[in-house]
Sequence to fold (119 residues):
Amino acid sequence: MAGKFEPKEPVNLDPPKEDIITKEYLSKCDGTQEKFPILVAIKGTVFDVTNKKDTYGPGGSYHVFTGKDASAGLGKSSLKPEDAHSDFSGLNESEMETLNNWYTFFSKRYNIVGKVEGA
Ligand code: HEM
Fold:
């Protein structure tokens, strides 16, 4: 039986990395600087979404989640910039499930390049 959130086309992923990624570096990785990858962090795990620049780069629908840990916004299904932060302690049970589902979704599509410092 196929698992949940499988991508339509198979994705070849690299082994997950455990590198520590500083918040300062992460903040540069929002698609506004050509030399940096585009990164989204969920629950402290950093995913490389550079290959989806149209979606995550400047002007893209989900640009708000880049360059940071956006757990709270993903859990609350919110695109508000003020919700795109790492503190998911205020999420209710169904929002936590949504957040965990996004983690699964990202982990099936995007390489894990490290962990956010302090996470
Ligand atoms: C009018 C409301 C919305 C519509 C019509 C919409 C539509 C879509 C569509 C068509 C996709 C592509 C699905 C796929 O590739 O299989 C998508 C992906 C996604 N949506 Fe939405 N969405 C909406 C609202 C939201 C909200 C409020 C959030 C906040 C969490 C959100 C977060 C995402 C994320 C993170 C992805 C994954 C993008 C990727 O990496 O491929 N969406 N959405």
